[in-house]
Design goal:
Two copies of one chain form a homodimer. In chain A, 59% of the residues lie in helices and 17% in strands. Chain A is an alpha+beta fold. Chain A has a single domain (3-94), classed as Orthogonal Bundle (Arc Repressor Mutant, subunit A). In chain A, β2 and β3 (69-76) form a beta hairpin. Chain A is globular and about 50 Å long. The termini of chain A are far apart. At the A-B interface, α1 and α4 of A face α1 and α4 of B. The first copy, chain A, binds a DNA duplex (30 and 30 nucleotides) through α3 and β3.
DNA sequence: GCCACAGTATCGGAGTCCGATATCGGCTGT
DNA sequence: ACAGCCGATATCGGACTCCGATACTGTGGC
């Protein structure tokens, strides 16, 4: 259970950036969304991850109230989008290296 | 420096399994091979990683002597190959999720 | 025996993962 | 307005990983 798990941790960050770059997202929603894709993680992992991403300047957050619920919504910063591009590039590269060819063109 | 770095850690494990499933490999060679692909990691990370993979039953090692040099060569076990397949599947899935479409889905 | 060298192993501080649990903010009923 | 509720977020502590630098091991040459 070595490689896959680590890949999931990375995938989670990518997903967060991916969604946060398209629309504001909040923790609980991300949690569901990730679960929907088969990535389950506890709040004790998700929230520190969001904080870290914000601390690193990849996300910005803001408290909003939706339907009487106070949420912290996150959106990607330019640096966050750059990191996303970088991540995508890395995924593509990795795919090209370890996936059996079935090329483009 | 959040997402890309974690992806690299995962990529390294995949590369190790990938190569170890094709031919016996040893630490120093993997180090070079990974560097060639742009993944640089220190011995302090690589060797514990190999040990962990072996402890988890994904690799088996054996001491051999090559040109008067004693090396520990690793090969993938069936479980290791299974983990590799699993990892490939995860990469494919991840690619399909965060990469801009241009294939099927 | 002793040195040189490729290759491998270990140390210790910093950071991360995780589930369980606590906290918060705003609503609802009375 | 107060108490209580609930979704959402935050925190805690133990175990594990990362990392560079450094030490160690075994082999051949002198």
């Amino acid at each position: 259970m070595a490689g896959v798990h680590e890949l999931q941790r990375a995938a989670i960050v990518l997903h967060v950036l991916h969604h946060a770059s398209e629309e504001p997202v909040h923790g609980a929603w991300m949690s569901e969304e990730l679960a929907r894709h088969g990535y389950s993680l506890s709040p004790g992992t998700l929230y520190p991850t969001l904080h870290r991403l914000e601390r690193d300047g990849l996300l910005v957050s803001e408290q909003v109230v939706v339907e009487g619920r106070s949420r912290r919504v996150y959106r990607a910063t330019p640096a966050g989008e750059a990191a996303l591009q970088e991540g995508r590039r890395a995924v593509r590269e990795l795919a090209g290296e370890v996936l059996p060819k079935d090329g483009r063109s």
